[in-house]
Amino acid sequence: MCHGANGEPSGVGKSMGAKAFGDPDVVKMSDAELVSITSDGKNKMPAYKGKLTGDQIDALVKYVRGLK
Question: What is the CATH number of domain 27-67?
Answer without folding.
Answer: 1.10.760.10
